[in-house]
Automatic annotation (TrEMBL):
Keywords of the record: Cell membrane, Cytoplasm, GTP-binding, Hydrolase, Membrane, Nucleotide-binding, Receptor
Class of this enzyme: hydrolase
Enzyme Commission (EC) number: 3.6.5.4
GO cellular component, one term: plasma membrane
MF annotations from Gene Ontology: GTP binding; GTPase activity; signal recognition particle binding
Function: Involved in targeting and insertion of nascent membrane proteins into the cytoplasmic membrane. Acts as a receptor for the complex formed by the signal recognition particle (SRP) and the ribosome-nascent chain (RNC).
Name of this chain's protein: Signal recognition particle receptor FtsY
Domain SRP54-type proteins GTP-binding: 270-283
Annotated membrane topology: Peripheral membrane protein
Major subcellular location class: membrane
GO biological process: SRP-dependent cotranslational protein targeting to membrane
UniProt subunit comment: Part of the signal recognition particle protein translocation system, which is composed of SRP and FtsY.
UniProt cross-references to SMART domains, sorted A to Z: AAA, SRP54, SRP54_N
Amino acid sequence: EKLKDSLLKTKKNIIEKIEGLFSLHPTINDDFLEELEEILIYCDIGVNATLQIIEKLKDRVKESGVKTPDEVVETLKTIIRELLETKYRGISKDYPLVIMVVGVNGVGKTTTIGKLAYKYKKEGKKVLLAAGDTFRAAAVDQLEIWSQRAGINMIKHSEGSDPAAVIYDAIYAAKARNVDVLICDTAGRLHNKKNLMEELKKIKRVIMREFPEASKETLLVIDATTGQNALAQARLFKDSVGIDGIALTKLDGTAKGGIIIAVALELDIPVKLVGIGENIDDLQEFSPEDFVNALF
Ligand code: GDP
């Protein structure tokens, strides 16, 4: 299916290198493990996550005599799935639900909000959008296009108004209309980081204060094609705003799918959604099992 296709480049990147490794080192010795370590790091899995994986692989080689390339790949697959599963938390299924979506401009935030809104609508949920990026007029217009495409209402104010006020209005509209899922867009300008983070924290406070009975998700959108840069963004948003999960976009057409592992194991943030194309249907809930099955 589509996830498999999206991860083909990532898979090819990893598997070809592991096969090459076996032609150089037919037995699993220290040289083999050292080079495998380099391969995993090179595939955007991250240094820390790679070390965790290699340690576990060493144990299993000792315990159960893993020898052939197929056995190594099978063992890696199990290790990665188990590690991801220990870190995994799905998106909240308690309603009413408020999802605050954060992320840097250009990563696919608007598109992800449109797809997510549509996904909930298809599941029979009543959805409302809040145009919280009042900094760019184009952001509101773009979100409005998606809201029309998905057939979903949107709360907006004029350009330059206080984003927290938009969210405040949206919360009261959501309550009055018995909305199940309120999805809040936010600004993603990075030229003044401190100012942006303060704005996001203020929005978060408004949601907490005005809608205590709702369950809440702060979802960070990052772009898989940017690899280590995406990881740095995740660290920044985690430390300054706090996030519950990640929507990883543009998994189609990148060989850097390994960052799912880095994000989960190094930053302890679960990837909850993956974007696998530009269409309204191209968003999936992440599953560790489907991910490793597509990867190996
Ligand atoms: P924003 O500035 O973060 O709101 O970014 P947009 O939502 O406008 O998206 C930027 C570009 O990325 C657009 O051309 C989208 O079509 C594209 N895009 C977003 N998500 C995906 C995805 O999962 N796969 C692909 N291939 N393109 C995507």
